[in-house]
Amino acid sequence: xxxxxxxxxxxxxxxxxxxxxxxxxxxxxxxxAWALEEKEDFSLVIAETQTSGRGRSxxxxxxxxxxxxxxxxxxxxxxxxxxxxxxxxxxxxxxxICQTLQKRYHLSPQIKWPNDVLLEGKKCCGILSxxxxxxxxxxxxxxxxxxxxxxxxxxxxxxxxxxAGYIEEFSSEPIDRLLLLKSIxxxxxxxxxxxxxxxxxxxxxxxxxxxxxxxxxxxPAGELFQHGSVMGIDSLGRLKIQPDDGEIEFIEYGQIxxxxxxxx
Length: 264
Ligand code: ATP
Hints:
binds adenosine-5'-triphosphate, 22% helix
């Protein structure tokens, strides 16, 4: 993969600037700096590897040259964006990836709310969305995506606290990273037009992992915050959880992590 190949593969998409680099600290950091410059909506930065790839809460995202697909998109805010947007843009990335994996590669992806895409229960893609402000003014949303394509993209088990997989583990055909990228970008472009509609929420909900199953919601420090079964997603993008006793709880996007309760 090089910049010329990428530009040629994506030439018919309405993108802004495109930058490809072998090694960066974090593609999200580059796109965040672009947000404060004059870079256009839908500018794209792709890297083979990151030296400080980030997950949520300061955790690390690992990408491996040739075996992962790692990119960040700069999206300029829409006038219709509500105040709490990071959840929606995270879902935009997750849903676009799921649609590609299902429709193009005939796989059965699921979204581990809020920000991971699973194949057969294994985390194959992570999404990190960040809102970039100048003072009080929202300048852009950075949508960062890391996808494990080949086996060596998967970190060693000691670096993981959730099982990880890679797309070729489940696909009957080898994955061309540029075709995968192009399809995801097309889906993001299309879905962005319906981002603040009920149709978007319903499409997102169709891919929700653990529906009807018991999960634990844990805090970044690992404390149990809630326990119950997954009911769906409400119109604000909150996760609906039915505790064993009591009313349905609406879990706000935040630093919480979801874990399935494995029946013994
Ligand atoms: P969790 O996935 O544990 O519920 P999370 O969704 O908040 O939490 P992120 O912050 O999105 O996790 O991702 C960082 C975590 O993902 C790391 O702590 C590590 O366990 C795991 N991880 C890092 N790189 C990869 C990768 N290439 N594939 C799968 N998992 C990874």
